[in-house]
Amino acid sequence: MFQPDPRLFDAAGCALDLAPCALDPALRVETEDGWRPLGALRPGERLHTVDGGLAPLLDLRAIPGPQDAIRVPAGVLGADAETLLSPGQAVLVGTGAAMEWLNVPVALARAEHLVGHRGIALRRARTTALVRPVFAEEECLWAAGGLRLYAPGRATLLGPDFYPLLDRAEVADILG
């Protein structure tokens, strides 16, 4: 029988729920007009993406978030200020020496898997009213001055198409 890639399915065999990929509305993202809070944006505005292009925002959906957040300190993973992320938010990280076995220079890691590395820790969330930016295709956005955050596309069903999604052990190998 076909065995699905475990990085795309949870233990119950259901498709990976991308709903946790949601952000604090106060998080600054890079738009074509400069750095602005995500919650202040409107559909049609264009945001800078990691691949160097501008992508129009299709929608900004309100998502109830968890009580806990993942604190990324200033200076870590490119963030220029302390940043709080939802535990399920995917972050683009450099693979460094692991590139030999991953065969990619960057990969995605869930924020919750970053805890314990480089001062990243679990904290109480400032707000549980989060937003999810929606684009036509999956994108990685510039946020908090240099943090690279994944935003699912309108048609993303199972998980990221263009970046591998690391598990907790792979994150420990890369960031450890």
Structure description:
The protein has 176 residues and is mainly beta. It has a domain at 28-92 and 115-158: Endonuclease - Pi-scei, Chain A, domain 1 (Beta Complex). The protein has helices at 99-102, 111-114, 168-175, and strands at residues 28-31, 34-37, 46-48, 54-56, 59-64, 68-72, 83-85, 90-94, 106-110, 121-124, 129-134, 139-143, 147-151. A hairpin with a 2-residue loop joins strand 1 (28-31) and strand 2. It starts with 27 loop residues before the first strand and ends with a helix. The relative contact order is 0.24. This is Hint domain-containing protein.
Major beta-sheet overview: 3 strands, antiparallel
State mean pLDDT (0 to 100 scale): 84
CATH class of the domain at 28-92 and 115-158: Mainly Beta
Q: Report the sheet-strand fraction.
A: 25-35%
Q: Give me the CATH fold name of the domain at 28-92 and 115-158.
A: Endonuclease - Pi-scei, Chain A, domain 1
Low-confidence stretches: 1-19
Q: What is the helix/strand order?
A: EEEEEEEEHEHEEEEH
CATH architect. name of the domain at 28-92 and 115-158: Beta Complex
As a percent range, the share of helical residues equals: under 10%
What's the β-strand tally?
Answer: 13
**What distance separates the N and C termini?**
36 Å
**Radius of gyration, CA atoms, in whole angstroms:** 15 Å
Instruction: Estimate the global geometry from the Cα principal axes.
Output: globular
What strand order characterises the main sheet? 7-6-10
Helical region count?
Answer: 3
Structural class: mainly beta
Pfam family, one: Hint_2
Domain Hedgehog/Intein (Hint): 28-145
Protein name: Hint domain-containing protein
